[in-house]
Amino acid sequence: xxxxxxxxxxxxxxxxxxxxxxxxxxxxxxxxxxxxxxxxxxxxxxxxxxxxxxxxxxxxxxxxxxxxxxxxxxxxxxxxxxxxxxxxxxxxxxxxxxxxxxxxxxxxxxxxxxxxxxxxxxxxxxxxxxxxxxxxxxxxxxxxxxxxxxxxxxxxxxxxxxxxxxxxxxxxxxxxxxxxxxxxxxxxxxxxxxxxxxxxxxxxxxxxxxxxxxxxxxxxxxxxxxxxxxxxxxxxxxxxxxxxxxxxxxxxxx
Length: 254
Fold this sequence. Notes:
Layout: H1 2-7, H2 10-36, H3 43-73, E1 74-77, E2 80-83, H4 91-112, H5 116-141, H6 146-170, H7 172-176, H8 180-204, H9 213-253
Antiparallel strand pairs: 1-2
Helix pairs in contact: 2-3, 2-9, 3-4, 3-9, 4-5, 4-9, 5-6, 6-8, 8-9
């Protein structure tokens, strides 16, 4: 990471700096919105919305720490960038993902209100696969050579493919049993989850495309940040909207 720090430009530093700041604010705002919005959903969906807010709260904390680490790693003086001597700690991301990625899948399962047995089964399977995916991806993220990065990236892709299969095959029949007013929203939440998660491997493979040094670091930080915004804040609001509509539909039937 030290070589990257030595070659980062002022533009690259500012771009990443502002992206981290914006994401922290967005995650914090999404947390408040989701937790305050719990009052608009029935008790059946409060847990799903609470977990959505928790995901954004955890992400907000870690983005604040990432922001502080990025700021501490560099000294901006007279329009130039110098290394401060403190290494940028990107491990915060993987700590965040280890906590939030399983919860992202669990909130989607909970808002569908499946049977107790199916909810527990799918939550355990998807949550475990998500945690395994993150654990396997980390050694490749910190690797200094492409073969090692590729090896761990390939291993991490195995639970990722299982999750994709579960989202589109395992949950497919369950989605069709959802109320018509939310069926398309659930499909959109599932698609956004897949699309944002599919963006992570693309960013992970940035060094494969002959992008190195500061360019690779900038691409990785911005790419992961965009994916986080979609997977957590945007999907979280969708979960809340699904919960609201299902609550209304069930109230009309009562």
